[in-house]
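Per your request, structure below.
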C-alpha cells in the first residue's frame, strides 16, 4: 500500500488478491455501493445527474455504506464530491476500483476518493471474449459490490451491468444521455457518422430486463 495526497493506493496483481484486500480494508458489516456510468464521455444534463446522485446517497448510511466508483474525477466520478459533502451526518468512506492502465496513462484520480484499488489489467475493463469473461478490473468492480447503481453508461459499463445481472447483484439503472458534443466529436475523430442516439449501451442492455 502506498499513500499520495491523502489517498491510499493498493496495487493488486490479480482479481482474487484485490477482492481479499478490499474485504480486509473495510472489514465485516460494511456494504459497498458502486456507481457506474459515463466517464470521459460526460453527461448532457449534469444537474439532473447530480440530483439523482443526491437522491441515491440520501438512502445510504455513511456508517455502513462505502461509496465506490472508478476512481477518476470525470463523468460519474462526481459522486465522490457529493459523498464528502457536509450535508451528511458524517462523510462517506470512498473507494475507487480501476484498471492499472489508468496509472500508466497518468489519469487524474478524484481528490475525494480515500482508497484506490489498482487492478493489474491491460485494458480499461469490459468483456475480454464473446463468452462474457470480464477483464480483471471489471470482475473486481462487480464482485466487490453489494449493490450497483448505473446512471447511463457506455460499452464497458454495459458489460459490467450484464455481468452483475448474471451474478445476481442488486442493480439499479437510471437513463441519462452522454454529452452530445463530446460524443459527436469522438465519432468525428474516428471517421464515423455522428450519433443520433445518446442514451448509451447500458440503456440498451437494461431494456432487455425491463
Amino acid at each position: 500500500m502506498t499513500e499520495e495526497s491523502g489517498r491510499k493506493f493498493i496495487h493488486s496483481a490479480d482479481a482474487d488478491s484485490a477482492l481479499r484486500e478490499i474485504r480486509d480494508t473495510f472489514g465485516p458489516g460494511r456494504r459497498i455501493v458502486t456507481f457506474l456510468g459515463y466517464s470521459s464521455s460526460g453527461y448532457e444534463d449534469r444537474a439532473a445527474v447530480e440530483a439523482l446522485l443526491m437522491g441515491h446517497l440520501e438512502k445510504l448510511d455513511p456508517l455502513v455504506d462505502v461509496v465506490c466508483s472508478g476512481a477518476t474525477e470525470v463523468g460519474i466520478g462526481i459522486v465522490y464530491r457529493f459523498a464528502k459533502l457536509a450535508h451528511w451526518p458524517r462523510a462517506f468512506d470512498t473507494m475507487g476500483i480501476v484498471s492499472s492502465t489508468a496509472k500508466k496513462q497518468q489519469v487524474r484520480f478524484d481528490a475525494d476518493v480515500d482508497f484506490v484499488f489498482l487492478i493489474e489489467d491491460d485494458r480499461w475493463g469490459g468483456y475480454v471474449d464473446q463468452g462474457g469473461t470480464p477483464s480483471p478490473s471489471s470482475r473486481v468492480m462487480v464482485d466487490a459490490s453489494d449493490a450497483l447503481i448505473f446512471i447511463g453508461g457506455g460499452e464497458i459499463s454495459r458489460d459490467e451491468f450484464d455481468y452483475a445481472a448474471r451474478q445476481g447483484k442488486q442493480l439499479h439503472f437510471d437513463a441519462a444521455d452522454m454529452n452530445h458534443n463530446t460524443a459527436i466529436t469522438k465519432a468525428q475523430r474516428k471517421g464515423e457518422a455522428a450519433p443520433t442516439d445518446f442514451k448509451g449501451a447500458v440503456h440498451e442492455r437494461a431494456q432487455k430486463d425491463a
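The first strand starts at residue 2 and ends at 4.

Regards,
D.
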